[in-house]
Amino acid sequence: MTGTLYGVGVGPGDPELLTLKALGVLRAAKVVAYPAPMTGDSKARAIAAAHIGNGKIEIAIRLPFTSERADTDARYDAAAKELGGHLAEGRDVAFLCLGDPLFYGTFAQILPRIAGKFPVAVIPGVTSLAAASAALVLPVAMKDEILSVIPATLDEQTIAARIETADCAAVVKIGRHLAKVRRVVETLGLADRARYVEFVTTGRERLRALSEVAEDEAEYFALVLIRKGNAP
To answer: What is the mean pLDDT of the chain?
Structure first.
C-alpha cells in the first residue's frame, strides 16, 4: 500500500489560521516536507512548528527564491523523487505550503511530478489575499464585480491592462517591482485606491497607502490591493 501526498496550506503567517484538517494531516503524516531558501529556515515550517512533533522525517526542499532559477526544475525533480521514495514505502507525506497549496504555491510544481503515480490530496489554506482583505477590512469583490490577481513580475503594459479590466485587483510578489507597480497605479489615477500590505497576520505586518512605501522597503511577501468601487 502506497502513501498519500498531502499538499497542506498553512496560511499566510499566523499559526492560528491553520485549519483543523491541516492539523490532523500534519500530526498523522510520517514525513513532513516544506520549501526553504538555499540557506536559512522555512517560513512554512515555522508556521506549523508547534504541531510537527518528534519522530517525523523532515525534508527541506532548498530553492533559490530569486530571479536566478536556472536549476529550479532539477531541484523539483529531485524533491519529487525523494518524496516518491517515501510514498512507495507506504509513508504519507505532508507537504507544507505558505497560504494555499494551489495559489502560487510551490506544491503546484511538485504536483505534476507525483500525480498519477501516487495518491494526492490537497488541504486548502488561507491565502495572503484573503488575509490582506481581512486586515484592511476591505472587500475584494462584491455582487458582479471582477477580481484580478496579477503577478508584479509581469511587464507594465500587462499589469495596467489587467487592472483596467477589473473592479478590484491584487498585485502580488511585489518586492523589487514596487516602482513599476507604483508607476502603473499612478498612471491609471488609482493611487488613492491602492493599499500596500506586507507580512500579513505576522508580527511584522504593515498596512499602508502605496504612496507611503519607499522603494527599498518593499518585501517579496507583500501585495497591493486596489479597489475601484466604494467599500461598504
So the answer is: 94
99 near 128, Cβ under 8 Å? yes
93-115 pLDDT, tens per residue?
999 999 999 999 999 999 999 99
Angle at 45 between CA 14 and CA 79, to 5 degrees: 140
Helix (H) or strand (E) holding 86: helix 72-88
Residue partners of 170: CB distance under 8 A and separation at least 6: 129, 132, 140, 147, 148, 149, 150, 223, 224, 225, 226
φ, ψ (nearest 5 deg) of residue 29: -70, 140
- The 8-class DSSP code of residue 115 comes to B
pLDDT of the residue at 43: 95
> Order of strands, edge to edge, in the sheet holding 31-37?
57-63, 31-37, 93-97, 5-9, 120-123
Does position 131 have pLDDT exceeding 80, yes or no? yes
Specify whether the CB–CB gap between 185 and 210 falls below 8 A.
yes
Q: Are strands 194-198 and 93-97 parallel, antiparallel or unpaired?
A: unpaired
The HSE-up count of residue 21 (CA atoms within 13 Å, CB side) is 11
Among the listed residues 125, 127, 123, 124, the one whose alpha carbon sits nearest the alpha carbon of residue 25: 123
Return the C-alpha cell found at 230: 466604494
Beta partners for residue 94, in sequence order: 6, 32
pTM of the predicted structure, to 2 decimals: 0.92
| Separation between Cα atoms, residue 172 and residue 77, nearest integer Å | 26
CA distances 68 to 59, 60, 65, Å, are 23, 20, 8
